[in-house]
Amino acid sequence: MPLISLPERVLCLITALDPGEDSGSLLATVRSAVRGGVNMVQVRAPELERTAFFNLAAEVMESVGDDAVVIINNRVDVALAVDAGGVQLGERGPAVNAARRMGGDEWQIGRSVHSVEGAVKAQADQADFLLLGTLFETNSHPGQRGDGLDLVRQVGETVNLPIIGTGGINLERAREVMAAGAKGVAISSAILSADDPEQAAAELKQEIENA
Fold first, then answer.
1. At what angle do helices 149-158 and 116-124 cross, to 10 degrees?
2. Rg for the chain, CA atoms, rounded
3. Which domains are seen in the chain, by residue range?
4. Treating both helix axes as pointing N-terminal to C-terminal, what angle do 50-64 and 24-36 enclose, rounded to 10 degrees?
5. 2: DSSP letter
6. Which of these, 122, 123, 87, 113, lies nearest to 102 by C-alpha position?
7. pTM of whole model > 0.85?
8. 133 near 167, Cβ under 8 Å?
9. Degrees (nearest 5) of the Cα angle 36, 39, 41?
């Protein structure tokens, strides 16, 4: 496998699929979003059982092709099986060094963190990038205050890893996250729930490019 590299500015789409839900609509949205400018897709569907999750990951890989980096949430075995570009590991998920042994130096390995301390540990563990947040309040965590842009600045001043901000990021907030020092943003509902995912992705891509 050739060395996988992060895009210069990352627009990552995080997928969502419930058990029993047909993947066809999600795959169509992913394809549209990639046409619009999404350059990384994180396959995430924690409620799916193993076979269904494997099938979704394989379908996303086939749909995206070489047009975006595909990373798999937490499931190192699935990432290997579908020949993904890497994995996104939860803060309490699999160890970075274990994933590296399995995937090799070609993989991009991200660690989800929520604090400066978590970022420092991820760098010591030799993660390739950070998924940082939740930065803003989200529908999935109503009433829970986000960590805010100060966390992006603090982490950026402390570690040298690329930061991808996540959590409640929409078109208006994307440029702010980039201006605070992030290399990119990870989006879910702002694209998945859009009437036109391709246009939504294109507008978000323009915002992060102009930041």
1. 40
2. 16
3. 10-210 (3.20.20.70)
4. 40
5. P
6. 87
7. yes
8. yes
9. 105
